What we know:
By secondary structure, the chain is α+β, with helices and mostly antiparallel strands. Helices cover 46% and strands 22% of the residues. The chain contains 19 helices and 22 strands. Strand 14 and strand 15 form a beta hairpin. The radius of gyration is 32 Å and the shape is elongated. The relative contact order is 0.14.
Amino acid sequence: SRALDHLAAMVPSVAHLTRDDGSIEDVPISEVADGNVVLIRPGEQVPVDGDVIDGTSSMNEAFLTGESRPVKKRTGSVVIAGAVNGEGALTVRVTRTGDATTLSQIMRLVEEAQASRSRFQVLADRAAYWLTILAVGVSVPTLVAWTVFGTSGITFAVARAVTVLVIACPHALGLAIPLVNVNATAVAARNGILVRNREAFERGQNIKVVAFDKTGTLTEGRFAVSAVTTDGLDHTTVMALAAGLERASEHPLATAIVEAATDGKVRPADATSVTAVPGRGLEGTIDGRLLRIGRPEWSTELGIELKPALEDALATADQRAESAVVLIGEDEALAVISVADRVRDQSHDTIARLRSMGVRTVMITGDAEAVAATVAADLGIDQYHARVLPEDKSRLVTDLKREGPTLFVGDGINDAPALLAADLGIAIGAGANVAIESADLVLVNDDPAGVIRALTLSRSTHKKMVQNLAWATGYNAVALPLAAGVAAGAGILLAPAVGAVFMSLSTVIVAINAMMLRRVDLEGG
């Protein structure tokens, strides 16, 4: 229910309704109907699904579609409820409201996935139940048999029956799983893994396929400079000039360039008279020289031809589906700066270690084919699916489950159905709340290596569970016949007091074995 609350909270409660006379009135979203026209101001979230009828802007739809780059919106474009508008105002004709919006459909998928999840059967509880019945069932025949057929008297027969009842240890079976889970939860918390569903430990021990979302999971979900190609200038000078111009912009690409300069300890040049040229980029003056930075097409419009090295850089960026900007001087192009979604530093090691564990890796993303192919090749991922819509992610996860138990790792609202569809769902902690509420485990840090720690802990947890169940079951299988006196002919008899000691010892051994889980090295893989 909290997952659905977080989804509903994404939609604004008020819309800017445009009347026929051109006036704008703020009305509750419940009063907006299909065919109405609403205004979406810069920086606002979209309240409804609709078609743009006027205006130009870019929109962040990453939380819904997985697309890492802002999506350009112009007349005729479709906007989705919950997306965040960028720098321009948009006039939108409403096509879907309420339960019909894309966001509401995802909410429905979450509800269906929650309803379809089967109830977990606790083997240990059932075993303890039957052991209790068995102990009583054995004690009565023991009393009768020793009374009727024995020669040691009624006192001996009662002692045998009492010993059977005392030595039986159903609570060792009952504690075998909970004690391990409690310790596993503590170990997980110390390693940045929050457990929302303790059953996840048992489901995760034999994972064969790990499917990752891309944006915000394997990548940081923010732009970073991936390549700088220059013509006549050194790298430091290019970054200083570019950052000097881009400091005046709040565009995600501009932010990436300024951050790259800062990280490289490059001081941005002092730029004056910086102005934005709509649809093209920025221009300004540095040291008395007019410079421009923006779309590659701008250089063509200015009649400036790019040198072969810069043309090759643009072609490479286009092939990898990266965004590229050109730094332009007064009469020549100076450099091409390529910008892409930054792959997390830990992602390479995570994929390599999963493959060494015999786990197949898959990437499922709403991003473009070229972007997905580039990231998959860079990380060595076995298989990828690009341009995947939210409702298709859960279907793909279901298909993967035919190959074996499947783990899905994601962070966005669009990942919620897939997290629920998987045998084990892990959410990146900084992701959307709905993903966290839909997952079995949550990684507190944005570190995909936490998946390795979670799987290692899951396998160790399963081993401890099996050991505890085997001990508790084996103990009772041996102790009950001995208590009943089957070895009396060999001189082996257990007094009720001894049976009580053995019963207590069985429980202590189960507890100690569960505590040993805290010594597992999760970093060792």
